[in-house]
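SAMPLE LOG
Freezer: B-3
Tube label: C17
Construct: single chain, 289 aa
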Amino acid sequence: MSTTNCPPVRIVNPQGLLPKGISDFDKIVQQRRCFVDKSLFIREVLYRDDDVILITRPRRFGKTTNQRMLQAFFEKSTVETNTRQLFDDLLVSKQADVMQHQGQYPVVSLTFKDIKADCWNQAYDKLRELVYEEIQRHAEALDFQAVDLFARAHGACWSRILQQQQATLNDWEAALKLLCKLLTLYHNQSKPRHEWVRPIVLLDEYDAPIHSAYAHSDKKLLVRAAGQSQDEWQQAFNGTYYGQMVSFMRGLLGGALKDSDYLHKAVITGILRVAKEDIYSGVNNLGVY
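STRUCTURE (predicted):
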């Protein structure tokens, strides 16, 4: 993200095939594809003052591959998922202070690139499925019932989310925040609070659902309401597909990122920053790059 004192560009496996159509960092390394070593980006993320980093770039700029690289680097390692060797030949491996963070964090990773639909109900179903799959990914690896504090405080809401169809819209808006809290409590059961290891949240193409909702909203409805009072216009806006999407994403993402005690870092990518003020209003720890 910094433009000063940049190291020279380093090409890994220059004789290998280009990773055409492949955004999975693990596959690119394991298949010995030709790619640019951007691993020092990990250091930038770690040492930025911003708790939440928003990176806006056009499509095909490698945002998803960078997000996958961050996940491979930070996510807690197990016997089955030891990812350290992926970085052995990369520039970051020579950064001893950075390598101490490898495989040390619970990671919540969501990509919104496929949340595109003609109406709110279709998009809402896709969003719920996306969040549920990420919850299940963690639930399969961890015994969440061991977190008694969490179960007592949020058991009813969490149970409805796990049962999917019984969860309300408010439950789903709170799901990401609850998952981060659950992971924090689970991974720090025997640690004092000042030693807690908190989750890293990676959100790819956060604005794709918002762009789709705007494109498919009834803009004529808003034009007709333009001459009415602010309350009447707001009511009309809230009833559009776009208004419903903005409201949901504000609840889902804002709840997890605003002044959270259960977040270490968040890296968010998108095409434009147009939704920043709507979605992240009040976030005082957001850096836009």
